[in-house]
Specification:
The chain is an alpha+beta fold. The protein has two domains: 127 residues, no CATH class; 104 residues, Aspartate Aminotransferase, domain 1. 36% of the residues lie in helices and 14% in strands. It is built from seven helices and seven strands; from the N terminus they run αβαββααββααββα. The strands form two sheets. The protein has a four-stranded antiparallel sheet with strand order 4-5-7-6. The chain has a three-stranded mixed sheet with strand order 1-2-3, with no helix packed on it. Strand 1, helix 2 and strand 2 form a beta-alpha-beta unit. Helix 4 crosses helix 7. It is globular and about 70 Å long.
Length: 244
């Protein structure tokens, strides 16, 4: 779910998915997950602090294919993403580009040709920045990076809950917050121009969205130079000034 970075809403939705899969004949259904950036919840430390987020990504094991963005959570350039699939053969059969003799590759080549695993015949080596980040930080380093992003988002959510002028969305449960924080102004007139007023301060940049038919503002936390205390203080100063 794009606004909140979460997948299924709870056990009821998960049971519905399982029932749907059981009704399908083998191979009759293909489950694709757009992991966006919420998928990285699976890499958070296995502690009580992040238990709800790890649980929110439950169900990935049923996917036949998964895509995810890397430019937010991994702090790499745009157009950096990945695809995981249970059936690389199907992928290569669809995308195989062997019509021209000079594009044919050896069947014994240990490295699959990118020509046969995507729609583009040529593209930048966008996998390199992703590999560099993963190689530099490792599993523990990436878990710490994601944890810091979540901690900042939760600190911001907690702070917004303390400000009388704003309403935290969609829940007041800070422990349910991932890396996305939604909120809006309680005053409708202020809320209508809220995003512009915030960004006009030139200290932080937020994006707009909608929740239950009304405008809202979206904080998306990413990056590796996060200082939870300092960044929360800056955001608070901006929001307090806008609400004056």
């Amino acid at each position: 779910e794009v606004n909140t970075g979460r997948y299924f809403g709870g056990e009821e939705e998960m049971e519905g998915l399982k029932a749907c899969l059981e009704e399908c004949a083998p191979g009759a259904a293909w489950i694709h997950v757009d992991g966006a950036f919420g998928i990285f919840a699976r890499s958070l430390p296995e502690t009580e602090e992040f238990a709800s987020l790890r649980a929110s990504s439950e169900g990935l094991q049923y996917a036949d294919s998964i895509t995810a963005d890397c430019h937010k959570a991994l702090n790499v350039p745009y157009a950096s993403a990945f695809l995981l699939t249970r059936s690389p053969t199907d992928l290569s059969n669809v995308c195989n580009n062997g019509a021209a003799a000079y594009l044919k590759t050896s069947a014994t080549d240990p490295i699959p040709s990118p020509l046969n695993h995507g729609l583009e015949n040529s593209r930048r080596f966008s996998a390199l920045p992703i590999y560099a980040v993963l190689h530099a930080h490792g599993r523990e380093g990436m878990a710490l990076l994601f944890a810091t992003q979540v901690r900042l988002a939760r600190a911001v959510a907690r702070m917004i809950g303390e400000l009388e002028a704003y309403e935290l969305l969609p829940t007041a449960e800070v422990g349910e917050v991932g890396t996305i924080v939604l909120f809006r102004a309680r005053n409708e007139e202020l809320n209508e121009g809220l995003l512009g007023r915030i960004n006009d301060q030139n200290r932080i940049f937020l994006s707009g969205t909608s929740w239950e038919g009304r405008g809202a503002v979206r904080v998306a936390v990413s990056g590796w130079e996060i200082d939870v205390e300092k960044d929360t203080r800056v955001i608070r100063e901006v929001l307090e000034k806008v609400a004056e």
